[in-house]
Specification:
Blueprint lengths: L32 E6 L2 E5 L5 E9 L5 E3 L9 E11 L4 E9 L5 E2 L4 E9 L4 E9 L2 E7 L7 E8 L7 E11 L4 E11 L6 E8 L4 E11 L3
Antiparallel strand pairs: 1-2, 3-15, 4-14, 5-11, 5-15, 6-7, 6-10, 6-14, 8-9, 8-13, 11-12, 12-13
Length: 222
């Protein structure tokens, strides 16, 4: 007669070893997973937290958003994802600026070098650059048309490095009242080698944000 069930509790004493198809475990840690730590050893292991959502902010009226959490050496690279960007004033620019000092208390308003390049749906090339300025232009001439919103992803590498700090980004936006969809990419360098970057500020050149959500992520070992 064929067996339909096998009662393992009556056939095995102790734990079932890995070599016999078991785990070799009688308990584990809540929230963790099982992984091989040897050819015949399974153990409880923590889920990696090398990529972490540090902070999320949204607004429909603020003139700027600043991020100062997580700038304590924990993360090698900081990533900011900007979504649903719309501004109150048509044709204003979208800027970023590094923050310095304890808790990002001081704005780094000098020693910034940047260049960006874009191409619009109407066939026009868009470029901006500066060899020494107080802010980074991420987008130039953003539309306040609520139907078509803008977005980008920005990375800040090694914010506490003793040398120059690198920033780079890419995204797409609707250009002012001309209504030309434009893709953009750019890079920047903060040339003050004596100060660590302890935060980032994002803001339009005029008016306020009409809508925006910015998520700040931290990356380890990058």
């Amino acid at each position: 007669m064929a067996l339909s069930k096998i009662d393992m509790s009556k056939m095995v004493t102790g734990t079932l070893p890995v070599a016999s198809g078991g785990t070799g475990l009688t308990s584990g840690t809540s929230g963790q997973f099982l992984k091989f730590t040897g050819s015949t050893t399974v153990a409880s292991a923590a889920v990696s937290n090398d990529f972490v959502l540090v902070q999320s902010q949204s607004t429909t009226s603020a003139s700027s958003l600043s991020f100062t959490t997580g700038f304590d050496g924990t993360y090698d690279t900081h990533m900011f994802v900007v979504n649903d960007l719309d501004v109150s004033d048509d044709g204003c620019d979208f800027y970023a600026r590094p923050l310095l000092g304890s808790g990002g208390s001081t704005e780094g308003n000098s020693g910034i070098v940047y260049a960006n390049s874009g191409f619009s749906a109407d066939g026009s090339a868009r470029t901006q650059e500066s060899t020494s300025t107080s802010k980074i232009m991420l987008f130039g001439g953003v539309d306040n048309y609520v139907t078509y919103k803008s977005g980008l992803t920005l990375w800040l590498g090694k914010p506490d490095a003793t040398g120059f700090k690198r920033i780079w980004w890419n995204g797409a936006f609707e250009r002012n009242s001309s209504g030309s969809n434009t893709s953009y990419f750019g890079g920047a360098c903060y040339t003050d080698s004596s100060n660590a970057i302890t935060g980032m500020k994002f803001y339009p050149s005029a008016g306020t944000f009409a809508t925006v959500t910015i998520n700040h992520y931290g990356l380890k070992g990058s």
